Amino acid sequence: MADDEREILTYELFGTAVRDLAHQVVDSGYEPDLVLSIARGGLGLGMGLGYALDVKNLSAVNVEFYTGVDQRLDVPIMLPPTPQAVDLSGLQVLIADDVADSGKTLEIVQEFCADHVAEARTAVIYEKPWTVVSADYVWRRTDRWINFPWSSEPPLVDRRGGQAH
């Protein structure tokens, strides 16, 4: 796939995206008590938003579509450990992820939060037009394949079969 058919996110542009998303949150008047990152893609965004919004209460959830090699679930599942519901009670939560593609990952985290938190809003770097969840804060909308700076090169280690390089 040629580069003009892809969104290329550099680390420098990532910094711009984080700051722009933080400005959107501030401009909307929303004041999160907790930034909840969806691992792994949302971890960097969650950290950056935490600093920009002066929120020190950060947490993460792991959501997985895959149960094994070529075994994809119809809906994602949240993997333990998940934040304790009692710790979320009454909080304003900002859910952070790198991309809303199908939107099913964001959807399951929103549903998890809905029963416990005062309010949950979502922030993503990219949003695809076919997502089932429209994020509250979006840096860019695209229908193209996205090259993220942290995953544009193969891992140094293959955890399924030894060293990659």
From TrEMBL:
UniProt keyword 4Fe-4S present: no
Domain of life: Bacteria
PANTHER family: HYPOXANTHINE PHOSPHORIBOSYLTRANSFERASE, HYPOXANTHINE-GUANINE PHOSPHORIBOSYLTRANSFERASE
UniProt-listed CDD domains: PRTases_typeI
Lineage of source species: Bacteria, Bacillati, Actinomycetota, Actinomycetes, Propionibacteriales
InterPro entries recorded: PRTase-like, PRTase_dom
Pfam families found in the cross-reference section: Pribosyltran
Keywords noted in UniProt: Glycosyltransferase, Transferase
Residue span, Phosphoribosyltransferase domain: 7-151
Protein name: Phosphoribosyltransferase domain-containing protein
GO molecular function, a single term: glycosyltransferase activity
